[in-house]
Automatic annotation (TrEMBL):
The gene is yacG. Its cofactor is Zn(2+). One of its GO terms (molecular function) is DNA topoisomerase type II (double strand cut, ATP-hydrolyzing) inhibitor activity. This is DNA gyrase inhibitor YacG. It comes from Agrobacterium tumefaciens. NCBIfam families: PRK01343.1.
Amino acid sequence: MTNSTEGAGKVTPLRKTQPCPECRRPSTRENYPFCSDRCRSLDLARWLNGSYAIPVADDESSAGGQGGGKNNAE
């Protein structure tokens, strides 16, 4: 007889639960990294209405002389 576990896939352990970024309750597997659909929806709404934004630095040296600066207008 062969071993019945031969050919079986590897079992991947579940990730450790993290606190929900909205309310700090333990996250659920279905809504990871959030604890509920409510917290997930609140976070999405903040992204969509612009509450979260990635800061952009207005630096002249970042233009790198690509012809888009004020000095090249003349």
